[in-house]
Predict the 3D structure of the following.
Amino acid sequence: MKKRNLLAVAAVFALSSSAAFAAPSATDAAAEAASASPVAVKATAPQMRGVSTTKTEEKAAKKPVSAQNYVEAPEVFEIASLRRAETTPSYRLFKGDTINILAIGFPDGIGVNNIGIGIDGYVQLPYVGSVKMEGMTLDEAKAVLMKSLGEYLRIPDMSLLITSYGPRKVYVMGNVASPGIHAIDIDSMNAYAALAAAGGWTNRARSTRIQVIRVQDDMMYYRTLNMKDYTKKHDLTQNVVLEDGDIVYVPASNGINIAEDVLPYVNAWALYKSLTD
């Protein structure tokens, strides 16, 4: 009986290596966002998600952010460290992350490597079908997998390991060499790295008044950074950690007009995020 269960577990993980999603590249993600057709999935797999047209329309109709919702909140943004600390237990899986799964309790350490979390936040596994992983900690993901696979197989324990991280996207706009959406590795998720990815600020830029903006629940929180002090005086407090979807705005030397310079970009970016997330 034990040998039969061992063979069954081995079969599951062997199949999952071919069924797993590959972590999407930046090009794939851009193509996905540009495509109007939904991604086809197997109808036979249980727990498959359907794309709701109504939900998409509700996202598109989301109320734009107004100047009244533009609030300075430095406390929202964490100061970036020179070297990113090891991933904490509170880290939440993100689309494009790649994980290894190891079934513990078997002599040969049965498992599967390089399972990519798809752009929809799901992975594909035999028997259980689509499993949502995005937004979960490793402990939460392990509990979900143990429960899902436990309906078919007897697995004593399981170990999950993140082997690579999916790129996050930030919007760098204003007076930079290459304004637009930039994919940034998790190890470089800070304002200075985002500016570097955009080719740096131009001669017309006001580098002492660069704004980092984060939209949360129709509120737009921002922090002003003095990148001149960061580069010239090595003031490390002038660089902050970014999150996926943050906006970095570099104003011209004549200052910032919120209604004309910032809000159109913020609302366009919010619409893009609501339709592609």
